[in-house]
Write a structure and sequence with these properties.
There is one protein chain. This protein is of the alpha+beta class. The protein has helices at 40-49, 71-88, 105-120, 139-152; strands at residues 25-29, 35-39, 53-58, 65-69, 94-99, 124-130, 157-159, 164-166, 169-176. The strands form 2 sheets. Strands 5, 6, 7, 8 and 9 form a 5-stranded mixed beta sheet that branches. It has a 4-stranded mixed beta sheet with strand order 2-1-4-3. A hairpin with a 2-residue loop joins strand 8 and strand 9 (169-176). The chain starts with 24 loop residues before the first strand and ends in a 29-residue tail after the last strand. Mean pLDDT is 81; it is low at 180-199.
């Protein structure tokens, strides 16, 4: 018989489940709350009698901890934990903002508002001044613009070094400020007491 041209599909082996558990004995946890150190095969049989699987949830423990539960439910819980962990993770990105040496105030303010939003989201900001043609002779203007930009963002981020010139571009990188503690809620404005006017004294009769 000639060998097949197509490879056979790989069967996914369930690790640390039932017969795949290699430890001789485990600390078995059952749905009724009982915990018992027993041979692995005996724990598997007991779990199967309950219509469940024996899943090793702590393989590095001594002895390993195995729990009798439904394998599908365990998979669902693991995926849910991974999803929650990914939601809590924040990937820091570098947001680039481009300027020209003669950038007007309107465009400058527009991009500064973008930078404030990027920094508040926990991202870094790379401000780049591009020099074209003869503008390369006035790199001092680009340096002043970058220093001004970094100064205006001092309450929102910190500068990583001094502005650098690479080819026809000058840039500076600004990182968000680390907030060690939550901002204290602002005190409510104290209302000034309203003075009550005394009624006119009674006229003498």
């Amino acid at each position: 018989m000639f060998p097949s041209r197509y490879p056979r599909p790989r069967v996914k082996i369930r690790e640390n489940v039932n017969e795949a558990i290699r430890a001789r004995e485990v600390r078995a946890v059952f749905p009724d709350g009982t915990v018992e150190i027993m041979p692995t095969q005996a724990a598997i049989r007991r779990a199967q009698e309950l219509g469940l699987d024996l899943i090793c949830i702590a393989p590095t423990a001594e002895p390993p901890v195995a729990k009798a539960m439904d394998y599908g439910q365990w998979q669902y819980e693991q995926k849910k934990k991974q999803h929650e962990a990914k939601k809590k993770q924040h990937v820091i990105q570098v947001k680039e903002l481009k300027f020209r040496p003669n950038t007007d105030d309107h465009d400058y303010d527009f991009k500064m508002n973008h930078a404030i939003r990027f920094l508040s989201d926990g991202n870094r900001v790379k401000a780049v001044v591009q020099f074209r043609g003869r503008e390369i002779a006035h790199t001092d203007l680009g340096r002043k613009l970058l220093l001004r930009f970094a100064g205006d963002l001092a309450q929102h981020g910190s500068v990583e070094g001094q502005p650098k010139l690479e080819g026809r571009n000058a840039h500076v990188i600004i990182s968000p400020l680390k907030k060690d503690a939550k901002e204290k809620p602002k005190d409510k404005p104290q209302l000034r007491p309203v003075l009550q006017l005394n009624p006119d004294p009674p006229k003498p009769q």
